[in-house]
Amino acid sequence: MPIENIPEIYIKDKKENQDLFVYDFKMTSDVVKSKVNLGMNMFSFLQVGKKQVHFAGTSVAVNKDQSLLLKKGNWLWTELLDTEAIYYCKLFFFSEKKLTDFLSKYTNNVKPYKEDVPYFVIENDDYLGAFINSLSSSTFINQIYSSALLDLKFEEIMLYLLNKYGNEFEFYLHSLISKEVSPFKETVESKIYSNLKLEEIAFLCNMSLSTFKRHFTTEYNASPEKWLQDKRLQKAKELLQEGNLKASDIYLDIGYNNLSNFSIAFKNKFGVSPTDISN
Q1: How much is the pTM?
Q2: Which domains does the chain show, CATH number per domain?
Q3: Which PROSITE patterns does the entry mention (predicted)?
């Protein structure tokens, strides 16, 4: 069974970098099993037929009364005809960039759980039915306002599902963000050795200080004050042990505003003063 790279096999213009993509999928075979390398997160809006998806540790099955939001990854899925002699679904792909932009715009960026669930089941209703009917790949190809219209459709479905499912859906969306590209962690870890205050780092993360502290504790299992201080002092110790620098040379570079505060913090952590290390 060959591996299908989706959505790449559906995109005609391979040179175009598409952050949002809609594809109308139809089949008339009785059962189709596929090994799928899903390169983007994807809504599967099933209109006719049944679908079963196997993940590493679980599986899920849906019919035309439900839709799926699937996390990118390697999955096995089976598509089956129902009572009608056709299988039909609309696939809506979106990149991590679009997702992070949306979360920054509309949510508080709190992700208070660590469960890594590869799917979210959506119960269809009248609103979703109308939304699904409004999606067609031909609508969003080579038209002057196609890109802007697709952006609006993406925000529409995301906002509707946030309104429908609340925190459960918001938390799931945050779990779709790859750890290595998390904008929160990227910002925090780029400011470890700065002399910015916590509220200033929180501001750069588009969070209030209290929200920042909650999110930080969830991500790092430590308070931001202790975590940042430990990182800075450990770096200082390494620099001093090299023997080329003194405390007065490094305290600003590792996030302290004055030498006295740095020296006190260093001795409290390691039991010796910075001069004892560098001498």
Answers
A1: 0.63
A2: 3-175 (2.60.120.810), 182-279 (1.10.10.60)
A3: HTH_ARAC_FAMILY_2
